[in-house]
Fold this protein.
Amino acid sequence: MRLLKLLLKLTVVLGSLWMLYLMSHPKTDLDPTYSLRYSWLEYTDADGGPEKVCNCTAIMQGEREALKQAKLLTITKDFRKNVWIPDEHYINATRDCRKFKLTRKYLTFPLSQEEEDFPLAYSMVVHHKVQNFERLLRAIYAPQNIYCIHVDEQSQASVFSAISAITSCFPNVFMVSQRVRVVYSAWPRVQADLNCMADLYNVSTKWKYFINLCGQDFPLKTNLEIVRTLRSLKGGNSLESEKLPKEKKWRVSNVHQIVDGKIQAIGKVKKPPPFNLPILSGNAYIVVSRGYVRSVLEDNRILALMEWAKDTFSPDEFLWATIQRIPGVPGSTWPNRKHDMTDINAIARLVKWQWHEGSQGSLEAVYPECHGKHVRSICVYGAGDLQWLLEHHHLFANKFDTDTDPIALYCLEKYLRQKALAELQP
């Protein structure tokens, strides 16, 4: 044990020396060993669990035999048991933060000056599945970024303890200052993100864009790709924002309350929104500028809109979309229908809804059928969805779940790490 600790300390020291060397010796086209300097950050089979028997390259290319093998593994009882990691594991593993970050291969230094100069802010609202959360954090972690974590007040004590332990290992990852009891389709879901928005805005003045996530999201792009995509927005925002369908108008025209932990109508008609604001349709997940966040926290029109929205149904599916179309909000677009944006055209999140799926070649389908399973009509992705996912411009996708298909997550995280390190090559 003492020898292991000594070797770990030596590895960290050598890594630091490498960083000092790299800072004073930038890469050039004449440096064939450059990529080898970061090989210790690659995800190898030695880092994986039982998923490592799969051929991720073949899976990413959609090869039938590889996908068949992956599918069989995911329904094997022993395989599923061996993949699962209990919450207590993270509580114990993070007692030695240096070892935890080293063995999990977190990127503890910026991979490029371009990324260092463009820090991002993340809100992560989580209520269970610590294993999913930790892998998501590792996939998006960079020391120049900042992360606010909201764990539902209703979460199990082991979930809160494990996530608190993980965040304590990173100076730029923190627990939200005020937790709420999240209720699906009710205002507290918005409040959780708002609390993180406020904390992120007050803690740092450097970050450029805000992205909110849940524990079952996962990136489809490297941090460098995300930074370059956001730079190309030139201060604009990217989120779903469309005309509110007739079949959803009841959500904002009737008063709702939380009763026994569930949202329900109370038979009372709501007053029109303040300032005659047109209510737009969207979803809970957004990619917005720091200026947009400032408006959410300070603009009197938005503060009045949020107060009005507190007794509506599923306010997260119209609030951000409506704010995006308010004139004067940084990065916003005019409320005219010509500026409507669908979730497919926005970059924030790629989701497969069951009622929009269809067989290959169907002209009416928005996307192909789910290769995983459906939860509340949303596809929980399987390995067979990866090739399709990576063809899109979206920064993140939802949903992934190690309990449903750990191979999909394993192959995607390996792919992203290899790509991130490949971007460093001359």
